[in-house]
Recover the amino acids of this structure.
């Protein structure tokens, strides 16, 4: 409630004594002298002096001293005095009497009185009367009247609310500027993504900036968030700091994350501590995570509990993670359940995994479902795995598709594999590209095989004859190979050999062989043998044969037969017969029989 009267009778006439900016010791004599001047003039019958003296005493809190002067000035027709008399009576608890005087002042043209009268009617539930008087105040240019009218209209869902909120903001009302910015912000995306409506985003930022400049701490917080998303981190930090110093815990928390990302963990912890002590659960979680990283689980647990006590469900979830890492499965399940029952989707997923690991498939499924329905992509993927394990491929595919649509790489791979199995090569390729682009080596390899099957025959090249051109399928093979995919490494080696690039082929074969690929070891042996290094080739064929490669065993049998080591050759021929495939077994059997005859001769 404004104590003083309207602008015309108080500001413009000079009867409202504004703070001078000097310290208290200098102001007291001026106020005393002004009071003496106004008192002498009032005693001489000056109506204006009576009104000013009453306002001065009212502002000081001297209601008994102010009332007779205000009543005398009001009786003489001073509308500012009538408004202030209403304020005085309202402070004494005589709301209906106050409204009577405000009505007199408002009818006489006082915008401040019209505002006060409008608020009085709204407090009593008489919205039509409230709107009438607030509109009178607003149309006379009173910022508080415009704001109160906007608030009333917004409460009713009236489209005219924004116009009056903007009017109040333009006249310097900081809360109106903040609320206008919030209204504009709500029209944007969840992360302030304005899309094509760049004007709405700029408009919201402008009003946040104006409110923040007038000391609105929440406006400073939102302005900081906008600037942070834009990448203007230094300016964002300044607004977060301004807001945090004014007591906004969320700004202190955000400032902590900004400092942590800049590498200043110690300063971040200071602001997180300040925010957590003010009840910010997110800051308490951040402190918990910080202490957990430092190997201080007891302190971490204390802060996670503080976050939970502040109403942040992440606290219970993080306690579950902490207990799970320490092998405290029963406690982990307890905390996951608490967070999951509160609607924490990742806790529901974690609880389901914990139950699945314990063999409780029936108990895990509903929690996976709950998490997936709440939007957990990992839970949707896990449901796919669960149903696939039961042989319910159609149901599994539906969950994989749901997770893949949300960007889950492994889910996209599984959908691609399923579509390939069903003969939908175009759909499979689309999903495999998504998964490969997301970093899946298996998807890159399978995509390469799809593209490889479509390639026209490539003309043969003599070993050592370099060819620079590479197909798209080879590029995908190489991406998978560089991620350690052994079959892709072998295939890249084969393509390099087909191009005549012996060095590149040997490199990839060797990398695959050393990672345990028997095909890589076999092909490396072939390459070395062609280059005249049969002893080294035999080493790699031995490794391949020991891993179950029939062709490598047959090659070793031939090598030892040529060397005259018939018994060793027969041993490897026996091994090749056992390993197969059929054509290898047939050739190895003929070689074995020939070696046996020669040994018995």
């Amino acid at each position: 409630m404004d104590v003083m009267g309207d602008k015309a009778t108080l500001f413009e006439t000079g009867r409202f004594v504004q703070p001078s900016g000097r310290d208290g010791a200098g102001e007291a004599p001026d106020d005393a002298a002004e009071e003496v001047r106004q008192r002498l003039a009032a005693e001489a019958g000056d109506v204006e002096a009576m009104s000013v003296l009453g306002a001065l005493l009212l502002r000081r809190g001297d209601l008994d001293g102010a009332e007779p002067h205000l009543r005398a000035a009001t009786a003489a027709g001073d509308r500012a005095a009538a408004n202030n008399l209403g304020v005085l009576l309202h402070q004494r608890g005589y709301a209906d009497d106050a409204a009577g005087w405000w009505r007199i002042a408002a009818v006489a043209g006082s915008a401040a009185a019209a505002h006060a009268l409008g608020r009085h009617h709204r407090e009593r539930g008489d919205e039509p009367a409230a709107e009438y008087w607030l509109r009178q105040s607003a149309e006379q240019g009173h910022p508080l009247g415009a704001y109160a009218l906007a608030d009333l209209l917004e409460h009713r869902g009236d489209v005219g609310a924004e116009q009056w909120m903007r009017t109040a903001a333009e006249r310097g009302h900081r809360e109106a500027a903040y609320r206008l910015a919030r209204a504009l912000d709500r029209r944007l995306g969840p992360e302030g993504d304005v899309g094509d409506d760049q004007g709405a985003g700029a408009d919201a930022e402008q009003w946040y900036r104006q409110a923040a400049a007038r000391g609105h701490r929440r406006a400073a917080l939102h302005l900081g968030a906008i600037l942070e998303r834009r990448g203007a981190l230094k300016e964002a930090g300044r607004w977060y700091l301004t807001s945090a110093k004014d007591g906004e815990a969320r700004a202190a928390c955000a400032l902590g994350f900004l400092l942590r990302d800049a590498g200043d963990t110690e300063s971040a912890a200071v602001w997180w501590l300040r925010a957590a002590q003010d009840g910010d659960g997110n800051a308490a979680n951040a402190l918990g995570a910080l202490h957990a990283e430092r190997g201080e689980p007891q302190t971490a647990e204390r802060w996670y509990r503080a976050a939970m006590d502040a109403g942040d469900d992440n606290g219970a979830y993080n306690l579950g993670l902490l207990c799970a890492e320490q092998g405290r499965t029963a406690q982990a399940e307890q905390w996951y359940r608490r967070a999951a029952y509160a609607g924490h989707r990742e806790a529901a997923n974690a609880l389901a995994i914990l139950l699945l690991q314990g063999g409780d498939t029936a108990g895990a499924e509903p929690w996976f479902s709950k998490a997936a329905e709440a939007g957990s992509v990992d839970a949707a993927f896990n449901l796919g795995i669960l149903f696939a394990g039961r042989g319910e491929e159609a149901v599994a595919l539906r969950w994989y598709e749901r997770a893949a649509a949300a960007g889950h790489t492994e889910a996209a791979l599984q959908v691609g594999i399923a579509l390939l199995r069903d003969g939908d090569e175009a759909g499979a390729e689309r999903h495999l590209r998504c998964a490969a682009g997301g970093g899946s080596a298996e998807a890159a390899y399978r995509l390469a095989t799809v593209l490889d099957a479509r390639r026209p025959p490539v003309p043969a090249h003599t070993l050592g004859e370099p060819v620079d051109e590479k197909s798209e399928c080879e590029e995908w093979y190489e991406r998978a190979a560089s991620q350690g995919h052994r079959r892709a490494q072998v295939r890249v080696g084969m393509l390099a050999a087909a191009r005549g690039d012996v060095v590149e082929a040997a490199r990839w074969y060797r990398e695959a062989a050393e990672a345990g690929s028997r095909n890589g070891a076999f092909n490396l042996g072939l390459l070395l043998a062609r280059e005249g290094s049969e002893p080294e080739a035999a080493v790699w064929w031995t490794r391949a044969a020991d891993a179950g490669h029939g062709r490598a065993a047959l090659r070793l049998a031939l090598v030892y037969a040529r060397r005259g080591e018939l018994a060793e050759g027969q041993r490897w021929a026996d091994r090749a017969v056992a390993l197969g495939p059929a054509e290898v077994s047939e050739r190895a059997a003929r070689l074995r029989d020939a070696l046996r005859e020669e040994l018995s001769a």
Observations:
- The longest helix spans residues 24-43.
